[in-house]
Design brief:
Elements lengths: L7 H21 L2 H23 L37 H37 L1 H15 L3 H12 L3 H10 L2 H15 L3 H8 L4 H9 L4 H24 L11 H8 L8 H28 L1 H20 L1
Helix pairs in contact: 2-3, 2-12, 3-4, 3-6, 3-7, 3-10, 3-12, 4-7, 5-6, 8-9, 10-11, 10-12, 11-12, 12-13
Protein name: ABC transporter permease
Main location: membrane
Subcellular location: Cell membrane
């Protein structure tokens, strides 16, 4: 018998096609989330295409143009829209290259830390017993050390470089993924779909990869966005303290550190890199809040109830 449009196998691909469209429509209905997503996409676009769109070489010095103000102030020039620093380097160009540095480090750290942390959380939850106890004690021990202090100590011994920063931030960030994954999987093991998979003889890797992991993807994606914001701030803090990105490379935190001595006479040296950090972190937090509400059925019910109550109240008026 031929498959019809009403058969389950025919409707399943259509449901898969509708799901991204549904998420996009919900995103477009949330103005703060749209603005946050747009800003993050702009940062990604700039980071990828910065060699093609940057107005000046970020390391090129022009002492005659040192500490020029932004273009809209007296003495400013549209050739340097956001002004220049104490060595005559273009502030906008350095911010654009700083976006590439911050995004590349943050995304790499999140990829490494999440992969390792989720794997450890799955192993601890599904194997249980002594393995679970040992892994969770390692997590508790490492969480007892301040992240920034640990990073500064290790970087002082090993030296500062982008690779070292990625390794240190990855080591200090995998625990939150492991703890969240372990907590969700422990509760999910008693769900009916996991017990059914065990009864039909599915192996442990198949149960984890095909049944458990897709069901915990929503909360982990929210955590991933929040950790991205944390890593952006951590990298900026390390660079500001002189233990992260080193000249002649550039990053937002390094630009703030180089401009702090001129903060009263040339405020743009600190203000614009600081705004880039603040807006990136704010956008990530707004997007994470939207993702949490959108992927949580209880939160979706609350939002729907508030919308219905608001509409009914407006009709009575």
């Amino acid at each position: 018998m031929s498959l019809t449009a009403n058969s389950p196998s025919a409707s399943r691909p259509a449901a898969r096609r509708r799901k991204p469209a549904g998420l996009l429509s919900e995103l477009l209905g949330d103005r703060p989330a749209v603005l946050a997503t747009g800003f993050l996409l702009l940062i990604v676009f700039v980071a990828i295409l910065v060699p093609l769109i940057v107005p000046h070489d970020p390391a090129a010095q022009a002492l005659r143009a040192r500490l020029d103000p932004p273009a809209w102030l007296a003495g400013g020039s549209w050739s340097h829209v956001l002004g220049t620093d104490n060595l005559g380097r273009d502030v906008l160009s350095r911010i654009m290259y700083g976006a590439r540095t911050s995004l590349s480090i943050s995304l790499t750290v999140c990829a490494i830390a999440s992969t390792f942390g989720i794997a450890m959380g799955l192993i601890a939850a599904y194997v249980g017993g002594r393995t679970d106890t040992i892994l969770m004690r390692i997590v508790d021990t490492q969480l007892s050390f301040p992240d920034l202090l640990l990073a500064l100590t290790v970087l002082t011994v090993l030296g500062s470089s982008p690779v070292t920063v990625v390794i240190i931030l990855s080591i200090s960030g995998w625990m939150v993924y492991a703890r969240m994954t372990r907590g969700i999987v422990v509760s999910a093991r008693h769900e009916g779909y996991v017990e059914a998979a065990e009864l039909v003889g599915c192996s442990m890797p198949r149960i984890i990869l095909r049944h458990i992991l897709p069901n915990i993807a929503a909360p982990l994606s929210t955590l991933l966005i929040l950790e991205f914001a944390r890593v952006v701030l951590a990298e900026a803090a390390l660079s500001f303290l002189g233990m992260g990105i080193q000249p002649p490379a550039t990053s937002w935190g390094l630009d703030i550190a180089l401009g702090k001595d001129h903060v009263f006479g040339a405020w743009w040296l600190v203000t614009f890199p600081g705004l880039a950090i603040a807006l990136t972190i704010l956008s990530a937090n707004v997007l994470a809040a939207w993702a949490r509400v959108t992927t949580d059925p209880q939160e979706r019910e609350k939002r729907f109830a508030r919308t219905v109550a608001r509409r009914s109240g407006s009709k009575r008026r």
